[in-house]
Write a structure and sequence with these properties.
Number of domains: 2
Pfam families: PAP2, PATR
Distance between the termini: 34 Å
CATH architecture of the largest domain: Up-down Bundle
Structural class: alpha/beta
Number of helices: 18
Strand content: 15-25%
Keywords: Signal
Protein name: Phosphatase PAP2 family protein
Radius of gyration: 29 Å
């Protein structure tokens, strides 16, 4: 990593002067010894703010009430939002309903007429034709995926598939809470009767008689609003209209090579005509519950989103659903969750539920607002299978598409559904609704995947990446954080690799950490709060300007590279967390200007220098470089300014 850093020529002369600090760990530098030079201007204002316009199509959040289970037999694209939101399945499959609507009628005996069968190449095992295959390549791959998954299934995967099938979904997904799982289940008063896999499960169907979501507010004063919200999120959320409309059979009805988990054979429906595979009801309910829990406990946002997709994959491993069934269920769930959170009628309830969730879980875990987030991530993979961020990220991406190739344009512009921004409301409380829409826009997956290019944009939303902040800065990105509000308002981290030509401006009093391999070119301006770099390229390829009241922290494993200018004014602080291996060091390729302010040096990761050492901390050249104050934890220090940057000479405190 060190070898990849740019090494800059440092030829401009600067003053070489020293000022011995008067007290242990700090002191003042005589400003009269500093040369004067013109202070560079802040990075240029791009002159516009990025946005994500609402698509000009009927919005699911406005029409969710049309998705009624009782109307399932008569649902159409025109009358039912739940059917319409997954309509891109019609690129692959034409259901019988549409053929009948087109004038081809099935006789009373149920045998489909030969004229329609002439273009139909796929017949389920039971011989009942339910539609016409339009894209055999994709649909054959869809079933073959299940064949491969179920024939290679491990016993551990089979067991997980059984539990996720037979347990209530609201109970199952709560283990995505990791260290908070037991506290959540206790507070919600959740129970399950499926605590093991019975020996006779292969012949006897067991159903969960426990409490799926929990006990509501009428009998649960401390957590009941949380349960009420989860129950409310099921409004207008039935998958039956879509199942009845699309009539796409489950995978084991397409191929005898699909091996249904033997313990789930008793769960197979005896009425295939009303047991559609597309879309997956289990995945739709699980993802809806998981995303609602992520909304309530955004400290576990990505882990809960991951758990929702994991349950979907377990439906494939069970042999009960295909990848396209699960993709459709996930897409539908995001739309339903957003619609119910977006509904003004639920505004008071969702606010009360958020407050209760944090209050009850903090009390149960002995934490407070400042320690809760750390506790939520305190477990290792031995007890929290979602503890590894990198694994979650790669698995989430894989489960978004299940390996399907792109069958249409890969360059269609991103589309953000109306109301989708509410899904990030608690994750980014310091951003505006418009900014949260841009976060969704800049983190979407590419276009072209089967089913996922719906007109509104639900299919392309990547909620894991969205929870890591912007994917690109286009235009002005102004972030204002208020540390007094706690939580993410006080401190947050954006881990995406941020591209674009826009400019970031941080205001307020919070701390924002940039952790990606960033390449944005518009520069960074700190007008308040602290902008922290935890990767060598955190600040992209532009200037960094630290204005009055702002601060920058370099907490990197390798030297931080600023390819443009670095300017620091008086009344600001630069903190360098030096680890003795290059981490925490600052390298400036453009003009280095320091017109006062504080340099604070910390030694981290076990690095302990000794008195008498001289440590290089800043590489850069400029006509004016002088800190008003230099503090070094544990030492007295003498700053040394030279034509190649800034060093500190340590002496005993």
């Amino acid at each position: 990593m060190l070898a990849s850093l740019i090494r800059f020529p440092l030829r401009l002369a600067v003053l070489s002067s020293v000022a011995v600090l008067a007290a242990c760990g700090g002191g003042n530098v005589d400003p009269n010894t500093s040369a004067s030079a013109a202070i560079p201007a802040p990075p240029a204002d791009p002159g516009f703010v990025d946005n994500a316009p609402i698509p000009d199509v009927p919005a699911f959040v406005d029409n969710i009430a049309t998705n009624q289970r009782g109307d399932a037999r008569y649902a159409t694209l025109e009358t039912n939002a739940g059917v319409r939101v997954v309509a891109r399945f019609l690129d692959l499959w034409q259901p019988l309903t549409m053929l009948v609507d087109a004038g081809v009628s099935a006789p009373a005996n149920g045998t489909f007429p030969a004229v329609a069968q002439s273009t139909w190449t796929g017949v389920p095992i039971d011989g009942t034709p339910n539609g016409t295959i339009l894209n055999s390549t994709v649909l054959n791959a869809n079933i073959q995926y299940v064949v491969t998954a179920t024939t290679r299934r491990t016993q551990a995967q089979a067991d997980a598939a059984y539990y996720d099938d037979r347990r209530g979904k609201g109970y199952s997904v709560t283990d995505g809470m990791g260290p908070l799982t037991a506290a959540w289940r206790s507070a919600a008063q959740q129970t399950t009767s499926i605590t093991s896999i019975p020996a006779n499960a292969t012949t006897t169907l067991y159903s969960d008689s426990g409490n799926n979501i929990g006990v509501g507010s009428t009998s649960n004063a401390t957590f009941g609003k949380v349960v009420d919200l989860l129950n409310t999120m099921g409004n207008n959320a039935s998958t039956e209209p879509a199942k009845r409309f699309y009539k796409y059979a489950r995978p084991f009805r397409w191929s005898t090579s699909v091996v249904v988990d033997p313990t789930l054979v008793p769960a197979i429906s005896t009425t295939p005509a009303t047991d559609g595979g597309f879309i997956s009801g289990h995945e739709a309910e699980a993802m809806r519950d998981a995303m609602t829990m992520a909304y309530l406990i955004p400290e576990r946002y990505q882990e809960m989103a991951s758990r929702g997709l994991e349950l979907g994959e377990n439906r494939i491993l069970a042999g009960m659903h295909s990848p396209l069934d699960v993709i459709g269920g996930r897409l539908f769930a995001l739309a339903v969750t957003a619609a119910n959170l977006y509904d003004p009628a639920n505004a008071t309830l969702k606010s009360a539920a958020y407050t209760q969730a944090h209050s009850a879980l903090e009390q149960a875990t002995g934490t407070d607002a400042t320690t809760f987030a750390a506790y939520a991530h305190s477990a290792t993979t031995s007890t929290d299978r979602f503890a590894d961020y990198s694994t979650n990220k790669s698995e989430f991406a894989r489960r978004m598409t299940f390996g399907f190739g792109q069958i249409e344009s890969t360059e269609a512009p991103p589309v953000v559904p109306k109301g989708a921004e509410v899904l990030l409301e608690t994750r980014f409380p310091y951003l505006s609704a418009d900014q949260r829409r841009v976060v969704l826009k800049t983190t979407e997956v590419a276009s072209g995947y089967p089913v996922m290019d719906d007109a509104e944009g639900w299919g392309r939303l990547n909620m894991f990446s969205a929870a890591d902040g912007y994917g690109a800065f286009n235009g002005n990105v102004i972030v204002t954080m208020d540390a007094t509000q706690g939580g993410f308002n006080a401190a947050d981290a954006w881990r995406n690799d941020i591209a674009g030509s826009g400019k970031l401006t941080l205001q307020g009093s919070g701390t924002l950490t940039l952790a990606g391999n960033n390449s944005y070119t518009g520069g960074s301006q700190v007008s308040g709060g602290v902008l922290t770099a935890s990767s060598a390229t955190a600040f992209g390829n532009g200037d960094v300007y630290v204005g009055s009241g702002g601060g920058v922290t370099v907490a990197t494993r390798a030297p931080l590279t600023i390819t443009g200018k670095y300017t620091q004014l008086d009344g600001t602080t630069l903190e360098l967390d030096i680890d003795g291996n290059g981490g925490g060091r600052l390298r400036v390729g453009g003009q280095l200007t320091v017109a006062g302010g504080t340099l604070h040096v910390k030694f981290v990761n076990g690095y302990v220098p000794k008195a008498g050492d001289t440590i290089d901390v800043i590489d850069g050249s400029g006509a004016s470089v002088k800190f008003a104050t230099v503090t070094v934890d544990g030492f007295k220090a003498t700053p040394v300014y030279s034509s190649s940057g800034v060093s500190i000479k340590l002496s005993a405190s």
